[in-house]
Amino acid sequence: MFEGRQAGRTTRDLGVLAVSRLFGTDGVRGVANRDLTARLALDLSVAAARVLGEAGAFEGHRPVAVVGRDPRASGEFLEAAVVAGLASAGVDVLRLGVLPTPAVAYLTQSLGADLGVMLSASHNPAPDNGIKFFGRGGHKLADQIEDQIEAHLGEEWSGPTGSGVGRVRDAQGEVESYIAHLLSTLPRSLDGLRVVVDCAHGAASGVSPEAMRRAGASVVAIGASPDGLNINDGYGSTHLEPLRRAVIEHGADVGIAHDGDADRCLAVTAAGEPIDGDQIMAILAVELREAGRLPGDTVVATVMSNLGFKIAMREEGLNVVETTVGDRYVLEAMKSGGYTFGGEQSGHVIMLDHATTGDGLLTGLHLLATVAGRGRPLDELAKVMTRLPQVLVNVKNVDKSRAKTSPELNAAVEAAEAELGDTGRVLIRPSGTEPMVRVMVEATREEQARALAERLAEVVRTAL
């Protein structure tokens, strides 16, 4: 199977798009003060206000935006630039301070704001930063709106003056309504659970431990001392070893790991074994189905979800709708099909009954509530699926545009798929931003998966 993505837009079996975009699959990202400058942040904010205003989003009322950030040092000057741009375009701004991305999405909706802006580079290292926009209702902007924003960058325009300029006020206290919302979604308390939560020195450092404690859990927080420079540094969902050690050291029932902006959730069992997004989705999908809250008995997942997840869902009588990689594409499929649950192996899990985007805190709380309600340890619940060995090889510095058309690669993929039959899977993915092709193979035996992945990677190197 082949999948292609170019600079934020995704296609499947349609080749690679030739048009690059400033916006990627999750906003605009880059090294702060080099790629993502204060000027660019200001211009993006002005352009966003103008585009939404011209589209009639502000018709009949004075526009309001909410702005949040993760604790990166660069977020301080980028926040100032975004706020300045919005206010100069006539938008009133509520400055939320440091809080998770899903909190900004929720508060955009709950406060009736016309626009939400989050400054974060998610799981990326501290020097990076990013800007993502949410429209009314807390939903990510459509590709065509982002394209219009990009087209308006740097244009001459005549801004408002006098009473027409936007006003700015601090609204850090609004995080309380987000915590209250999270707690209101839980079917039961977390009484009796001992939890270690790793906040990646990121945006969830204060909020996630507090929400879990209020839900009834005994909580140990690690990676919860952000200094602006240590976000994702050795902690969080991309570095599970500290969490594994802490869970064992404290005799905890479960470990929960977030990334820098807390839209992801991974977990660790009492024995320190990692539980990925596919396993979390499998556990929660069965729970939702049994509660009668899984429309169409369907889960939406990406092509990167483990084959074991799909087999497990089939055995549970559940359907899986497959999308290309990116939580925005999972969300699009959920909306178009009327589904309410989906996500990615990376831990982006979307629960549309309660949120408009992936929410690591919401996911973690519901996973803990399932453990508490079932009265069974996480490792037993995770047995709902058997994770097949999955090997990923990144082949760099190749002509990724030829990945679909290479006869040699096509023949090699067909041979590998014939060898695997129904017991495995091959996926070839050109990178969206680098001259690189990702080769992924799943099989019942890791040795077979690794051998086939290396064989295909060698064909990519020689044929492309």
UniProtKB/TrEMBL annotation:
The gene is glmM. Mg(2+) binds at residues 122, 259, 261, 263. The active site is at 122 (phosphoserine intermediate). PANTHER family: PHOSPHOGLUCOMUTASE (ALPHA-D-GLUCOSE-1,6-BISPHOSPHATE-DEPENDENT), PHOSPHOHEXOSE MUTASE. It comes from Actinoallomurus iriomotensis. Belongs to the phosphohexose mutase family. Activated by phosphorylation. One of its GO terms (cellular component) is cytosol. Residues 392-458 form the Alpha-D-phosphohexomutase C-terminal domain. CDD domains: GlmM. Its EC number is 5.4.2.10. PROSITE patterns: PGM_PMM. Gene3D superfamilies: Alpha-D-Glucose-1,6-Bisphosphate, subunit A, domain 3 (3.40.120.10), Alpha-D-phosphohexomutase, C-terminal domain (3.30.310.50). GO terms for molecular function: magnesium ion binding; phosphoglucosamine mutase activity; phosphomannomutase activity. Keywords: Isomerase, Magnesium, Metal-binding, Phosphoprotein. The keyword Oxidoreductase does not apply. It comes from the Bacteria. The modification Phosphoserine is found at residue 122. This is Phosphoglucosamine mutase. One of its GO terms (biological process) is peptidoglycan biosynthetic process. Catalyzes the conversion of glucosamine-6-phosphate to glucosamine-1-phosphate. Pfam families: PGM_PMM_I (PF02878), PGM_PMM_II (PF02879), PGM_PMM_III (PF02880), PGM_PMM_IV (PF00408). Its cofactor is Mg(2+). SUPFAM superfamilies: Phosphoglucomutase, C-terminal domain (SSF55957), Phosphoglucomutase, first 3 domains (SSF53738). Residues 21-154, 177-272, 276-386 form the Alpha-D-phosphohexomutase alpha/beta/alpha domain. Binds 1 Mg(2+) ion per subunit.
